[in-house]
Amino acid sequence: MFRTQPAINKIMGLKDWFKSKAAEIAEEDKERKMRLERDIIMALRQVYDPEIPVNVYDLGLIYEVRVDEGHNVYIQMTLTAPNCPMADYVMEQVKTAVEDVPGVVSVKIDLVFEPVWDKSRMSEEALVELGLDD
Q1: Residue 134 maps to a domain
Q2: pLDDT tens for residues 82-120?
Q3: Are 95 and 106 a contacting pair, CB within 8 Å?
Q4: Domain count, the chain
């Protein structure tokens, strides 16, 4: 019975090591995901509304960006008006920009009109750019 104690101690040490390693990997995954989300936002800031000289992110057209563990990206976005003649073009530009981000596996975009877009969704930079800051 006393001979098994070193084996038990070794197993307990391995168990602690595995827990530590799992936590380390989880933290690295979290950091990778945060970097990917940052890069996606940077890519979205390169896509401009063809009718307004402001990028779609600062214009407030992007309602949600989600990245899952497999680096698949979900974007919920809107347009400034439901009957926008450039809808397909803007959506294709958003999709292409995000697909080009290293690490992104796939991109799914949902175009929504609820809630309705208004200027309150614009960033401070966009408001200043358009001269709408009060």
Answers
A1: no
A2: 888 889 999 999 999 999 999 999 999 999 999 999 989
A3: no
A4: 1
Q: Rg of the chain's alpha carbons, rounded to an integer?
A: 23
CA 78, 80, 83, 87 torsion-angle sign: negative
HSE-up of residue 17 (Cα within 13 Å, Cβ side): 6
- Residue appearing with tokens 């809630």: 115
Say if strands 72-77 and 106-111 run parallel, antiparallel, or are unpaired.
parallel
Q: Label residue 2 by pLDDT band (50, 70, 90).
A: low
Instruction: Report in angstroms the alpha-carbon separations of 48 from 25, 44, 90.
Output: 37, 8, 8
Q: What is the CATH number of the domain that holds 125?
A: 3.30.300.130
Distance CA 79, CA 102 (A): 26
Q: pTM value?
A: 0.79
- Mean pLDDT for 40-50 is 95
Domain that holds residue 51: 4-129
